[in-house]
Design goal:
Layout: H1 4-23, H2 25-28, H3 31-34, E1 38-39, E2 44-45, H4 46-49, E3 59-63, H5 69-76, E4 80-85, H6 88-101, E5 107-109, E6 122-128, H7 131-134, H8 137-147, E7 148-159, H9 161-166, E8 187-188, E9 196-197, H10 201-210, E10 213-219, H11 234-242, E11 246-253
Helix pairs in contact: 1-6
Length: 255
């Protein structure tokens, strides 16, 4: 299995971490103080979706934590989170976030494809994009399932495959037509960008099933008419109100 993307993505995120944290601070920064994190590029509050439920006392792994804003928000809500990220520069931002929030959360530098945790270590494994976007799902999903206790929850958001199908290479916005292949979707590479991964829906479900994960829901958040995002503009908002741009998988480990 080609794993060249791991070193490539570490370098890409180390180079981009400062810009990413600066440009998106207004959207992702406040949650370390409010304790209400938000999903995806349109910032749908967890308090509105209520996907995690009561996290008090829960052992939680954020698989691809970036600046650890989510983990800090969950710690403020009484959880016991650990953050994992491939990028050492992102983890420097995570430590700065901890200092700002006045909360310490353990963070580990590792790939989500080889997380250094024992079987059954967590009640919840999750990511808002994170390792489930920038790691190969044929490695991240089996490891996420392995680290969950029986009955544990896996939650992760990704770009919606429909948006990928409509996005012409090198264009700034998705189109109103399908322009790329659906079958064979897996590794997505663009010059100068981190390598991303995605799968057709049937392949996602087959992968979940083979790893003992039960699909409870696929949420397709729709931005409001006045939604503002530091990641997207009004053109993308208009597109995302017609077609799904993001998906959040909600799964439970059998047993």
């Amino acid at each position: 299995m080609d794993r060249s993307h791991i070193g490539h993505n570490r370098a890409a995120w180390n180079a981009d971490a400062d810009r990413y944290q600066r440009d998106n601070r207004a959207q992702i920064g406040p949650q370390i103080h409010t304790g209400d994190p938000a999903w995806g590029v349109w910032g749908i509050p967890e308090s509105k979706l209520n996907l995690l439920g009561d996290v008090t006392g829960k052992r939680i792994l954020e698989l691809g934590c970036g600046g650890a804003q989510w983990s800090l928000a969950l710690a403020r809500r009484g959880a016991h989170p650990i953050g994992l990220d491939l990028s050492d520069r992102q983890l420097e931002h995570a430590r700065a976030s901890m200092s700002e929030a006045g909360i310490d959360v353990p963070v580990v530098q590792a790939t989500g494809e080889e997380p250094p945790f024992a079987d059954g270590s967590f009640d919840i494994v999750f990511a808002d994009y994170g390792a489930f976007t920038f790691g190969d799902p044929y490695r991240t999903i089996p490891n996420a399932a392995r680290m969950l206790r029986a009955g544990g929850v896996l939650l992760f958001s990704i770009i919606h495959p429909i948006m990928l199908l409509a996005w012409p290479p090198h264009d700034e916005h998705p189109s109103e037509q399908l322009v790329t292949d659906y079958f064979g979707m897996h590794r997505i590479e663009m010059p100068g960008e981190a390598t991303e991964f995605n799968l057709p829906f049937g392949e996602w479900i087959d992968l979940f099933t083979r790893n003992g994960l039960i699909v409870e829901n696929l949420i397709e958040p729709r931005p409001t008419e006045d939604a503002v995002s530091s990641y997207r503009d009004a053109t993308d908002r208009a597109w995302s109100r017609r077609w799904p741009s993001e998906g959040i998988w909600q799964l439970r480990k059998a047993g």
